[in-house]
User: Fold Protein Wnt from Pygocentrus nattereri.
Amino acid sequence: MFPSLSLCVLALLLVSQQGSGIRWLALSTSNQHINKTQQCKMLPGLVSSQAQLCRTNLELMQTIVQAAREVKKTCQKTFADMRWNCSSIEAPKYLPDLERGTRESAFVYALSAAAISHTIARACTTGDLKLCTCGPIPGDTPEPGYRWGGCADNLHYGLLVGSKFSDAPMKMKKKSGSHANKLMHLHNSEVGRQVLKDALVMKCKCHGVSGSCSIRTCWRGLQDLKEIAMDLKAKYLSATKVVHRPMGTRKQLVPKDIDIRPVRENELVYLQSSPDFCTRNEKLGSVGTQERQCNKTSSGSDSCDLMCCGRGYNPYTEKVVERCHCKYHWCCYVTCKKCERTVERYVCK
Assistant:
């Protein structure tokens, strides 16, 4: 099924007004199965080189559509406890803060780059992509009781194809947008991929009589995207503000307040300060925190004081149904009853 014509047109109009290197995230709205080359030019948010990759590898595009959906879902969950909660990437309406070079923009670019390579790497493992297979078996000898086997996530292929697709808009010579923004987006995208590389860990499965785990078959697998997003959130909170100034024969990004050192490869960088996101301001990309749920007992960013920006909050009650009085039966299942209770919630004024 094709998405509605009005949705496609709206998405195309919105992304055409921006120089966004992540406008391919509009693919999260697509519900069509891409099996014909002519469908590529109807997909929202693609630059010419991305559309060409679509035409030559239709199979890959389904994985990229999935990556766009994962970015939106993961970003919103990661920032659910903060004033900015990824409302900027509510496709197809992308808000201006992603083009102002803010730290929110830095996070979204980094997560997007990591997500697309992550999704491709895992698609190789599951057999959803025919052009790639499992990742290579490590060359080092495992410890006694361990052996290499299984199907490793193909991180190499994911990074190779993912970076080619996600970095394409920033590498177009005639693309609109400042050089400083392009450098920032390319840098943060690379930070996302570096965090992804660090997320490749050893995973094992036990073998043995009666679950004794006398031998373990192991492979290299990626952590879930939510774990990668949390690492990037920590980098978001400690991101470095930079300026674009001459360094030698060309302009580079250097830390604004501590420009005696170059930008570190593992830090997120941003050019413009963010609004406080307390009140609605569409020009700045803020939807405000009115009607956002807050935590009355928290002292963190989700507290009613911080989330509501001092405006106060309104309480309301809600009935929730939960599993209760659970019993374990030998062998081997659990039965539970359903209990209803009333809880008090709070929303910002």
Q: What stands out?
A: The CA atoms of residues 76 and 187 lie 23 Å apart.
